Amino acid sequence: MAAKNAPLLSTRALNRATLERQLLLRRAALPAKEAIGHLVGLQAQNTRPPYFQLRARLEGFDPAELSSLMESREVVRIVTLRSTIHTHTAEDALTLRPLVQPARQRELHIFRHGLAGVDLDRLAALSRELVEERPRTMKELREELLRPWPEADPRALAVAARCLLPLVQVTPRGLWGRSGQVALTTAEHWLGSPPRPAASPDATVLRYLGAFGPASVKDMQMWAGLTRMREVFERLRPELLTFRDENGTELFDLPGAPRPDPDTPAPPRFLPEFDNVLLGHADRTRLIPPAYKGSNGVGNQAYGTVLVDGFLAALWRLDEAADEAVVTVQPLGETSPAARDEITREALETLKVMAPAPSHDVRFGTFVDVGA
Questions:
Q1: Tell me, what's the pLDDT at 5?
Q2: What is the pTM of this model?
């Protein structure tokens, strides 16, 4: 618990600070690669969300820019934080994955019964040989790994390879306007690089605060999928500022990081499902009002989020046809006429970039039951 005399940051103050660092308070004139590095990656469970994340944050963003970075192997799709696929710069793919590797190793415990009798060192070596010979699908990996271990659970074998090795999804998977099944090789092979040392926990905490702060130890642990980070924060304490939130939780921050006036205007933003800004804290009330907790996702199904005045206020869905692209917006509460006008303008601007079609439309309606 923070000391009682630590400066208080209101929920609205935390909201504006987070939006500023996430490039959501105003769009940034940054190259996509620089933005991806600043944000420490983009969550990429699905292939399209990284493009929409950048559209919400960058001036003049063209989806072809991210596609080009993927084709030139300057950014890649790889399992890192929270055991989730992220789009990272090549440098971060090579250094963040080793940092979170202990967490990936612990995942193997879930599959221990299906891996009985399996030599994990041999499995890792064989899997590396297979995927570096040519990119392999998970089905191909399962089939090949069943040869030496026919009694093992096929799914457990393939998941073990993913946990033990830094596997990237090779293109054309993830390219804008194209499709391709998931095929995997190692990050080192795809990027033509020898193994790199893990990113330091201290440097990673500082980068996290720069993109998501002010934040608590628990916030950072939730974002990274790591545990026992308290000692890192304590080691860094002399370099950091401390605050407390409205619940008395201690928050850490970089001394020179922006903390805008809580009344700074925040324009509407259309975020895709699984945007990291919505998942980067243990306490998400800085963006999601308590009344709307869980409204933007049920289980593994998530919906696009509309921020109004900086907070979750609506869900959105895009439907595309040959002659028309339509965004349907589902408000979660009362929405003023002025707010609807702003939402409509932002939706139409998003459609122009992300869904070129002869006709665009924005409709307000209901497309999912979010409960009482």
A1: 83
A2: 0.95
> Does an H or E element contain 157, and which?
helix 154-164
Q: What does the alpha-carbon distance between residue 276 and residue 296 come to, in Å, rounded to a whole number? A: 13
> In Å, how far from its chain's centre is CA 112?
28
Report residue 119 as tokens: 């030599």
DSSP E strand boundaries for 24-174: 42-43, 75-79, 85-89, 167-169
Span 109-127, pLDDT tens digits: 999 999 999 999 999 999 9
Q: How many residues does the chain have?
A: 372
- Say what the pLDDT of residue 295 is: 85
Amino acid at residue number 362: V
Q: Residue 109 in 3-state DSSP?
A: helix
Compute the C-alpha angle 123/44/160, nearest 5°: 15
The C-alpha atoms of residue 85 and residue 169 are separated, in whole angstroms, by 9
- At residue 298, does pLDDT exceed 70? no
Q: How far apart are CA 61 and CA 285, in angstroms?
A: 29
Is the C-alpha dihedral spanning 356, 360, 362, 367 positive or negative?
negative
